[in-house]
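Hi, here's the filled form for the chain we discussed.

Project: internal
Contact: R.S.
Residues: 624
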Amino acid sequence: MNTIKMTMGQALVKFLDNQYTSFDGKEDKFIDGVFGIFGHGCVVGIGEALEEKNHDLKFYQGHNEQGMANAAIAFAKQNNRRKIMAVTSSIGPGALNMVTSAGLASVNRIPLLLLPGDVFACRQPDPVLQQLEQFHNLSITSNDAFKPVCRYWDRINRPEQLMTAATHAMRILTDPVNTGAVCLALPQDVQGEVYDYPVEFFEKKVHYLDRMDPAVEAVKRAADLILKKKRPMIICGGGVRYSEAGDMLAEFCDEFNIPFGETQAGKSSVLWDHAKNLGGLGVTGGQAANIIAKDADLIISVGSRLSDFTTASKSAFKNPEVEFLSINVGAFDAVKMNATSLIADAKTGLIALGKLLREKEYKASYAGEIEEVKKQWNREVDRLYSTEMGPSGYSQLRALGLMNEEFFEDDAIIVGASGSLPGDLQRVWRSRKLYTYHMEYGFSCMGYEVTGALGVKMACPDKEVYSMVGDASFVMLHSELLTSIQEGLKINVMLFDNNGFGCIDNLQRSQGIPKFGCELKYRNPATGRLDEGGKLIPVSYAKIAEGYGCRTWTVRNSEELKTAMREAKESEVSTLIDIKVDFDSMSDGYESWWRVGTPQVSEKPAVEKAWKELKSNFEDIKKY
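And the returned structure, exactly as it came back:
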């Protein structure tokens, strides 16, 4: 057997450099590069291997471990999971900073390869710097915290174990059903240990992302169910995007007269003005989709995990005869809502179903309802876009209207994750090009917006990328704004400053609870409490970004925003526009309800009233 003597770190880099994916005949290099923050747990091991010039993996310097991992997730998502970035860190706090990102990746079904350093496998120098010692079990390290949030976890305690672990890591990362975060913990001594690796371990490996065809009998059962129904509705989920099945979904809906609503992950798989596209569905959805969903007698979920926001906590579907059909590559998601399951790739599933429905000359019985609700909703969006002021200041929705209708390029990509913006964007944003809407809403992770924008820009360097972020989320994590300057990768941060956690303040008050702990205020010295007469804290986020080297503006009205956006387009470096908006200028829910944990008893009558209303809603829901 031919072998190569290498350290484990060197072997890992060489292995990663030779992994490829193939989808519909198109081959791509799977590992595009490596994000890293070096510390004693990785710099002299995998760091030494990355420094060598004998591979094609580009190294990117991160500035916060969670930030660089989020950027890697965004890169993979924007590439429809065909390409990824690996991420490496030192042990202890550096590794633990990536646990949140691991959860984010697994929830959203996005491949993420984490390579944190670990303590010495030999234990001779224990305890090393940053080592967590568990008194009852010395084999536990900080990296064990990744186990609950990863799809695959392994620790390489001997250099030869790398071969099995790396092979299984690729198996999970390229699996459309089981993909998510993968953690290979790398003890710092083992990274530098030598082994005679077989040459074939480093040969080019192509992972074929074959489309999953449905079973013939399953297609017949699904078609029989549709044929019994008059008013079906489709949910366009993230699986439509990753399958690149948007065109097929649009054709299917046109041919059989079936409307569809979008999830956050599915939005921009089909353009906003398609005749059957009703826009966002559920809690953060709009009027059109939610009205049609109420009366639908069949919900066809295509590639959706049917979260509570999509189903309005399972309250969106009021027809007593409603049933569910789920087209999904994963059985775990396909059985939700007691659905009839069609285990298949979104595209092949729709093709197979279409063939049987065509033979039966099926058409849903909608007449002019779809056109009417679309027309009404478009008028409402136009109204929201044109309303200049909120209750006490500049309107967030007016700012979004200017961006969407007048200034952003049709192929510009917007990135978001948390706060009130995902609701506004799912409801009112009009996507004019495919895959231009990039929302992380499975984890709704504050801090994803800026770091995710960097990952998207890495995936699409020829497009303008806009981070849609609130002030509270920007404060949590914007470290990779510095990486964008360092790498010459221009991103545009549209920062909506409403002085705190406006979205949660809105939820708080909706349940009868007075304002508390959500506005960015000084503590009131007279009462010793927050939000009782305390003054708002004025923050210049533009100055923060300016310190990194960005071009910045602060705006308080439409004219200032227009000027800033014109100048931002001309900038060659990353930009930030600090938009001072009204605390209460986000959009409200449309024909939807969300179950939250409202107190059942309280000294406040308004809270007890909210509980009674909540109870009356969820007691009527019998779906599971």
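Let me know if anything looks off before we file it.
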